[in-house]
UniProtKB/TrEMBL annotation, chains A, B, C, D, E, F:
This is 2,4-dihydroxyhept-2-ene-1,7-dioic acid aldolase. Pfam families: HpcH_HpaI. It comes from Plastoroseomonas arctica. Residues 19-239 form the HpcH/HpaI aldolase/citrate lyase domain. One of its GO terms (molecular function) is aldehyde-lyase activity. It comes from the Bacteria. Keywords: Lyase, Metal-binding. InterPro entries: Aldolase/citrate-lyase_domain, HpcH-HpaI_aldolase, Pyrv/PenolPyrv_kinase-like_dom, Pyrv_kinase-like_dom_sf. Belongs to the HpcH/HpaI aldolase family. One of its GO terms (cellular component) is cytoplasm.
Amino acid sequence: MANKVKEAWKSGKAVVNGWLAIPSAFSAEMYSQCGWDSVTVDMQHGVQDYLSCVACFQGMQPSGVTPMVRVPWNEPGIIGKVLDAGAYGVICPMVNTPEEARALVQYSKYPPAGTRSNGPIRAGAYGSSGGYQKTANDEILVIPMIETKQAIENIDAILDVPGIDGIYVGPSDLSFSYGKEPKLDVEDPFILEIYDKLLAACASRGISAGLHNGTAAYANRMIKKGFKLVTIANEVGLMVAAAKAAVKEAKA
Amino acid sequence: MANKVKEAWKSGKAVVNGWLAIPSAFSAEMYSQCGWDSVTVDMQHGVQDYLSCVACFQGMQPSGVTPMVRVPWNEPGIIGKVLDAGAYGVICPMVNTPEEARALVQYSKYPPAGTRSNGPIRAGAYGSSGGYQKTANDEILVIPMIETKQAIENIDAILDVPGIDGIYVGPSDLSFSYGKEPKLDVEDPFILEIYDKLLAACASRGISAGLHNGTAAYANRMIKKGFKLVTIANEVGLMVAAAKAAVKEAKA
Amino acid sequence: MANKVKEAWKSGKAVVNGWLAIPSAFSAEMYSQCGWDSVTVDMQHGVQDYLSCVACFQGMQPSGVTPMVRVPWNEPGIIGKVLDAGAYGVICPMVNTPEEARALVQYSKYPPAGTRSNGPIRAGAYGSSGGYQKTANDEILVIPMIETKQAIENIDAILDVPGIDGIYVGPSDLSFSYGKEPKLDVEDPFILEIYDKLLAACASRGISAGLHNGTAAYANRMIKKGFKLVTIANEVGLMVAAAKAAVKEAKA
Amino acid sequence: MANKVKEAWKSGKAVVNGWLAIPSAFSAEMYSQCGWDSVTVDMQHGVQDYLSCVACFQGMQPSGVTPMVRVPWNEPGIIGKVLDAGAYGVICPMVNTPEEARALVQYSKYPPAGTRSNGPIRAGAYGSSGGYQKTANDEILVIPMIETKQAIENIDAILDVPGIDGIYVGPSDLSFSYGKEPKLDVEDPFILEIYDKLLAACASRGISAGLHNGTAAYANRMIKKGFKLVTIANEVGLMVAAAKAAVKEAKA
Amino acid sequence: MANKVKEAWKSGKAVVNGWLAIPSAFSAEMYSQCGWDSVTVDMQHGVQDYLSCVACFQGMQPSGVTPMVRVPWNEPGIIGKVLDAGAYGVICPMVNTPEEARALVQYSKYPPAGTRSNGPIRAGAYGSSGGYQKTANDEILVIPMIETKQAIENIDAILDVPGIDGIYVGPSDLSFSYGKEPKLDVEDPFILEIYDKLLAACASRGISAGLHNGTAAYANRMIKKGFKLVTIANEVGLMVAAAKAAVKEAKA
Amino acid sequence: MANKVKEAWKSGKAVVNGWLAIPSAFSAEMYSQCGWDSVTVDMQHGVQDYLSCVACFQGMQPSGVTPMVRVPWNEPGIIGKVLDAGAYGVICPMVNTPEEARALVQYSKYPPAGTRSNGPIRAGAYGSSGGYQKTANDEILVIPMIETKQAIENIDAILDVPGIDGIYVGPSDLSFSYGKEPKLDVEDPFILEIYDKLLAACASRGISAGLHNGTAAYANRMIKKGFKLVTIANEVGLMVAAAKAAVKEAKA
């Protein structure tokens, strides 16, 4: 199966990414058929763990979306496990220094690029015809989250770490770390200026930048601004918003 | 905890009901906080079984919505189990004859009204102060589904069965049984005329009629028409519609 | 593995039986090591289904207690499944007529005694050395619950059904069906007199009678009265009572 | 997705069918990629229930095998549920009379052929382009098990029931009902003669016959004999046999 | 929902805390209604993981007890996840140095006090009206376990770390680290003297001390001695003790 | 229960070890009865997490095989948890330095040998009569994986760490780290020479060496070569191979 995110990025296009917080293969199955290019299981803030991630991956497999994971932390055990489960991309929270970025690359890549252990239990079954182990280092996207003041200050050193394919910006944590209210779909010029700098720093290195968004309208603006991967809330957020609207309309 | 559906019906009001197909306590928890008066776990067509129903009930308990179940079939084992789990209402598919309606009442009520067995394992913990067993027969709603030509032909005999609190109309099965395309939010005058007859037959007996709907707009119309319980799709349907719209807007 | 209940009954002894409502193999594992002769998974009023029953059986296997099940209803599908899972006894609720008793025996026994289907997926692994299928009809106890006025009136005809090994009395349903308050550990002379008649009717046929109890003290009395299987509440009831007492003492 | 079993049967070919007893989507996923034409979740004797069946279906979806179910019993609730989950064939145990066969057809087909209720929650997502409800009655195979003396005696009447696509023979139950030892891969001429009669009775009506086998060698013979669907043990049986052989060889 | 532990501590009162080892929402639900002020999911030594913790939290939510967690280790990934799930307190094992205590505070608090990432998926739904993120740093209790010789030697430096609300003493590990038998409800004067020193060191800083106990009687003594949070065994321990006593009494 | 691996090693014998990737207690239960001396739950590359490991342990308990775990990483939280669950051996991946080996020993042993925390929730129930805590440090095997060039270079220092009972060689990672194709059942003289050196280094210290193998034939050779623990693929690998062969034979 091709990595649709990688392909889009190669051709300079943006992808629209889904986000899973509900630990249900059925929910993931239905949601993955809605037009997303990729769908990410959120093991950090979502109600997800390793086995629910595997279940969600199974649910989304027939849809052809590219499966990715946001891991709970920059830790080799869980990064290896989600890759073995078939993740085509690892989004890792709170990567604030080049050392942390290097560790992330190490955990995510087979030798000689890294120290990932061999055993792609589920990934191997869906790997490319060239052999999963031979193509994994190229195919799988390593995407540190840039979401703190410290990361912004270290951005050039982080982006210079070999093996980084993209970055993912968490707006609420970024705002939080600058002493601002944690929220999505930021209009604060200070934060938007940071986005511009990040986009420029990425562009100069051929790295793609992604952003977490609260609404499709904002995500659409951010694609036009230059972000190459935009997420829109998560599946439970969309469901809750739709349910509230439906109740209101029915009771009108 | 009061039965909000029963209270609303006593005062002639309509309730807006949610519908759960995803077997996840977390999904149910978030969805139940969206303003629904009641939320029904769909054990017939939803991806639900008894233990997922219990989990959904636990997830929705803090919200204060009234928990109900659509059972998979008119069968005493599962009806007893969902009542023990804490259902305040049993919606039962394909009740086509007064005999089936009587059986449903029997399964749902304690002696002397019925033959339900005593052991409200979870229900007892949240029962009224008067003692669960003393109030259950009054509090718990027995709601046969009227969704076939046969049921329509038997409607008076069905509604005359003592212990029936309401009916629930399944539009797609009803249309199907008359040789029409199975669908929700019907505009076919033939079916709408049946609705009128049902509403009249119910109203004359103090029984409330419910309807499954595809959209909030149609549900709103049906409240005005006289239905006292309207469901809007289910949680996964709302999520899928919202996700498709979000993807489309983001990619615009 | 020997059927300890059968062995005890053969020698005229009574067994003390545990009762599982919590769907957890770990809980079952710890509880089964407390001295019970047999432990019954309560699929009727407990928070249990087929897969949780299998898990509980796995948890209790090392303890050597005899595993039994109270099925949710007198239905061939689930009776076959719990026997395949390894139940050594089937306690079936609401057996009120000899026809229902005959059906229960049919569902529980291999040909020619009954119509149980062959496929003891888990039971076969722990069956006797003579071959599970050859000994199952003899080893597995068929135990209808006698818990309604109707059953009492039909008691001789029910007990005369070939293949009935024991009966199990549900005091709260029995009281309920006579218009009395549903409760355990009954002191009502009317009900106690029924117990005497049941014990006599059983004794004359070599059938053993069991009883559900709320407390160990009452269970002890009932053994002395002639009951050959006594259950004491269930595991969650014991836990709740102990927890309330502990909180009270700690706060004193 | 096409029904590979139906297609093969149309062209007179036999299919090799897998059988799932382990309630694991991962196990089902790996097993379904081994070359089977169809894979059946065994809800009767396997350690399976409705939600594990859904999980197994999700696991096997990418492989393209045709998913089928052996239901625990001829009961409308569970038959409707597994069809909604996406089963392309229903194998139903212990169908002994034409009445039972007619009931099975009723439960399995939408009006006007039957009384199946509309709501293909998962099946609808993978249905044919013509619309799931329009093609389901034609696409989904209804396959009663012929596994008792009574069924053999009623075979013509059973096969004459409209809507029967095939039969499935359970050798161990069939032998059991004739007072013989319950086993697979039978060489008993009496039973083999029954097979011949069944094959002839099926062939004359354009109905396909399936058989449960213990070994691939026997299954191969049975294809040559005329059976159009052969199952080989189940996944756990194959695993256990392989494991025992491996241990033996390693310790040699 | 108010943090009952924090409120009690503010007014100088002690709380009685429950402890969950069984990974079951139902068990947690029933247990949480027994009078505990708070109930802690034990992810270190209990049979618990992240998703079972979420399930237990859902089960205990209606009871109003304050939910807390003992995390398996002082690791940012899991600490963030249990806080997002709604924990009002984090009890962390084996905090032996001020560096480890500082790390624990960092992981547990939002900026600027710490580096916790924003995304209170379940916690946000039950947060205070002032907004979860604004009150979390104040409301959520950070409670290192003091349970080794090293921790005792570093106690002043540990307690001086800003953000520590309480300590929790693990008597068996503490005894173990001093070369004594690991056990609860210690009477060893050497250990009791350590308790006195800990209580004094805490009291002088306005920090509350908690203790794990085996019996309610000992817990009661420890409240009187000055401990402000006492746990009594765990739910499975209470159940096992009650079951053993019941069997013994029934068989007497 | 005795540690069969330890006993065999004491007497210089080799053990044949099973390997579990399927997260199912039932699968583990059947597989554990195939003649293995020990069975290891693979939490690194298998589809396993902590709760599935507990379930597998429960499934395998009656078989008497010695339960072991390959942990996902050298991390104290998970090592403590699997030991509490009842592991008799910890196989830890990627131990490349003596420091890492020392950490592994620390995490795995009670004071004074290590810093493992007391609370053997499930292990305690099956511990030796002398008391689990008194015998655990002796009984439980600590087995670092030697699977990188770095580990080979540090082998003497690693093996000199007190508390190491054995090593486990991962051939595919070892080959990978030397720039060779990652595979099992290696015939490459360079790697085989490393095996010889490892065996000699182990033998001189009374440490046993284990090896992961793809086939029983190769495992048999490796026992003869001097390995004292040989694993043969895993349960899902054996199943898949058997299934492919069965399909092929049936279709022949």
